[in-house]
From TrEMBL:
The lineage of its organism: Archaea, Nitrososphaerota, Nitrososphaeria, Nitrososphaerales, Nitrososphaeraceae. Keywords: Kinase, Phosphoprotein, Transferase, Two-component regulatory system. Pfam families: HATPase_c (PF02518), HisKA (PF00512). GO terms for molecular function: phosphorelay sensor kinase activity. It comes from the Archaea. SUPFAM superfamilies: ATPase domain of HSP90 chaperone/DNA topoisomerase II/histidine kinase, Homodimeric domain of signal transducing histidine kinase. This is histidine kinase. InterPro entries: HATPase_C_sf, HATPase_dom, His_kinase_dom, HisK_dim/P_dom, HisK_dim/P_sf, Sensor_HK_Regulatory, Sig_transdc_His_kin-like_C. It comes from Nitrososphaera gargensis (strain Ga9.2). Residues 1-216 form the Histidine kinase domain. It catalyses: ATP + protein L-histidine = ADP + protein N-phospho-L-histidine.
Length: 218
């Protein structure tokens, strides 16, 4: 309550104190939610509500929500197939949580430039779909990369202005696994990083062609 006390004493402007208090309240809420999710994952108690989801709509919703958090120096872009709906079966809220965590982690390693989210079919075929997140940052530190999806691995690395709980990627990996998918990350030419966030079976109602062009939206 330090800033609240300072505001009450007139030592800092009330609006400045309120911004700090709200920011810290949200950080504590994220930490609490993440700890609860980790406890549920470790105990096998996390639940999922599966439904058919239009993947591109989900990605665009996450992008629009994330723009306010990445800062002015980083732009969010999409490279998605816009000719036909790419439909998957999954838990909408959990998949949005997963992608939000991935974008947040990409932002930690991207001080300026762009983060691009791409959707489409996996190159391994079999009707698998994939979400790829690429950034123009300096890449993920080599000592972090092997254990990137562990607990607290990224808590104190990356952009100091975008520190998180260090649990988001662990939770994201569990969410993807629950959808019978896989998740990985690698550096490209030492100058940027790419997350292959989701590789899972498309819904039987999906009809989409690899030959369809990708549309870049900013």
């Amino acid at each position: 309550m330090g800033f609240a006390d300072l505001a009450l004493k007139g030592q800092v402007p009330a609006d400045e104190a309120l911004k700090v208090i709200v920011k810290e309240a949200r950080r504590l809420q994220r930490l609490t939610n993440d700890i609860l999710d980790v406890s549920r994952i470790d105990g096998g108690r996390i639940s999922y509500m599966m439904e058919e989801i239009k993947l591109n709509d989900l990605v665009l919703n996450v992008i629009n929500s994330a723009r306010v958090n990445v800062g002015d120096r980083v732009s969010l872009k999409t490279a998605i197939n816009t000719e036909k709906d790419l439909v998957i079966r999954g838990d909408r809220e959990r998949l949005m949580q997963m992608l939000t965590n991935i974008l947040g982690n990409a932002a930690k390693f991207t001080k300026e430039g762009a983060i691009t989210v791409e959707t489409g079919y996996s190159d391994r075929g079999k009707g698998d779909v994939v979400i790829k997140v690429s950034d123009t940052g300096g890449g993920i530190p080599g000592e972090v990369l092997p254990n990137l999806f562990g607990k607290f691995v990224t808590k104190n690395v990356g952009n100091e202005n975008k520190q998180g709980t260090g649990l988001g990627l662990f939770i994201s990996k569990a969410i993807v696994a629950a959808h019978k998918g896989s998740i990985s990350a690698h550096n490209k030419d030492g100058a940027s990083s790419q997350y292959r966030c989701l590789s899972m079976q498309a819904s039987e109602h999906t009809s989409i062609s690899l030959q369809n062009p990708l549309s870049f939206l900013s």
